[in-house]
Amino acid sequence: MRKKVRKTAINIIGDVPWGTHFCQFYQTKEDMIDILVPYFKAGLENNEFCMWITSEPLHVEDAKRALKEKVNNLDDYIQRGHIEILDFGQWYTKSGRFDSDRVLRAWVEKEKLALERGFDGLRLTGNTFWLEKKDWKDFTDYEAAVNSVIGKHRMLAICTYCLDKCTASEIMDVVSNHQFAVIKREGKWEIIESTEYKKTIEELRQSEARYRVVVEDQTELIVRWLPGGVITFVNDAYCSYFGKSRQELIGHSFMPLIPYEDREKVKRHFDSLDRENPVTTHEHRVVDSNGEIRWQQWTNRVLFDERGNLVEYQSVGRDITEHKQAEEALRESEDKYHAIFAQAADSIVLIDPENGALVDFNDRAHESLGYTRQELRRLKIPDFDVIESADKVAKHIEKIVRQGTDLFETKHRTKSGEIRDILASSRAISIGGRDFVQSIWRDITEHKQAEEALRIHDLRLQALLDLNKMTTASQQQILDFVREEVIKITQSEFAFICFINHDESVMTINNWSKGTMPKCAVTDKPMHFPIAEAGLWGEAVRQRKPVVINDYNAPNPRKKGCPKGHVPIKRFLGTPVFEGERIVAVAAVANKEKDYDDSDVHTVTSMMNDTWRLIQRKRAQEQVRNLAKFPSENPFPVLRIAEDGTILYSNDAGSALLSKWERQVGESAPHDWCQLIGDVLDSN
Q: What is the rounded average pLDDT for all residues in the chain?
């Protein structure tokens, strides 16, 4: 964005806006250099196209030399066309004489070309030393023309005059045709402001004061108008609202925008404004761009001049049609009230605080609970609220009436029995003189489930990390850890882990949860269960996949019954652990308060898969350690057999094998072993 305020780099002047036109009175060329060199240096540094029109006593080469002392890369600027330094004969008297119209048009054309090339604007100066007495009148007219139009352009202009060549009257002409003049007195530069410039500054101050008042009160629509209704200013929002341009509005009365029957009332309101009552708020109807009647609220301010005369009105307004309609709806019709809240995404209910009855509710309320409107109308909150009893609901309603509002969480049971998490926002209100509690129920079940899933994920991840750190723990310690973690994560009451034999015919339970055995009243607690005789517990092996039973008491043909005194089972989840295609273990959890789901299956499966890998790794490490032992210490049979098949040595673990062969050390090994030994030796 181009800056509206530009740096002059002249300390006594500072920053100025585009359209600034001032002059310098000089006596020496050093005076001009003192002002013009920093002036053009700032223009080059701030992306402005610069033009320096020279004359005696500072010619083109003198100007370049002086500027180059402060601008090191001046030649680059000149080559790239950022600055032109010309003799007055190349600009002011190009045709052999001074033509004010041609020069003025040329400045405008230079500005246009500069903007097209991407410059912010045009910075210029012209020395008038060449000016002769016969041209003075034409040149002063030219300066006056420049001063009157420069404010419309992105230009800064300094006109330099030799003080010694100007008479007193000519100095007055120069000052009057510029916004201000710069002159050196006793070695210091000073500013002389023209009367016209002072007047402009005062008008600008007054304009800015009016603008600040507008900004302080601004809401949406802004309009200023004279006594009688003629508009002097409108903002974009006002134009857009009424579908008219500024040209169509300014200079015309705003009264046609008000319905005919309301105009007299509006006029009386404005007539009531005076110095004692300068600001009021007023509501009235208008006709918008579509010809529709709308309601607006206006803050009206009357403005006075310094003598106390009323000079202008200022009004800041906003559309309040919807607010008016809502007030009318609540006041006149309960049906209109329903039209407002019937489409809400949340359930909205009106509750009678005296008896807790549901006086009214939107469609979302009964649909989310699974009831028809007639069914829900017969119910009260305790009929479907899981958390609060009838007494607690009554006390809660009293609390809302007393406090005015309340925000809380609860649980609702739908007609189908599903439990949903609810965030309730309740407020005591009054409609038509009657007191109610309005409650908005937002279903946050999915949000709660997402939070729970994240909690379980974090627990599961931490458990897996801790499990994989148990490299020095025993197998029993590992199983105990996994069992208790699975109980915690799935929020179960009991758990067990069992191993399956090689042909998957028997499961051996060797790891029960801590609280299981004390609660089990079965006198004979077998640890080995044939799969063929196992009931629902064996389904994970038979079906070779996780089995979830959330109603264990329901009739099931796969049940085999439980011994008397067995721990009661309400819900059950069992999952197999595979090594390749073979099931090697089963893990089970039971009696979660809620139904088991896929997340629980994933928890048990992932934990047990990592557990089995850790156990297998520990078993492999144990076998390696055993094989590395001296033969006499090795827990596995170690035999030394000669090439002719004679048994030369057997450790203690090999005695059982010799007994099976019915052989002793010193005798020959069985024929098949001798044949095997021979084949091995032949292959080497």
A: 85
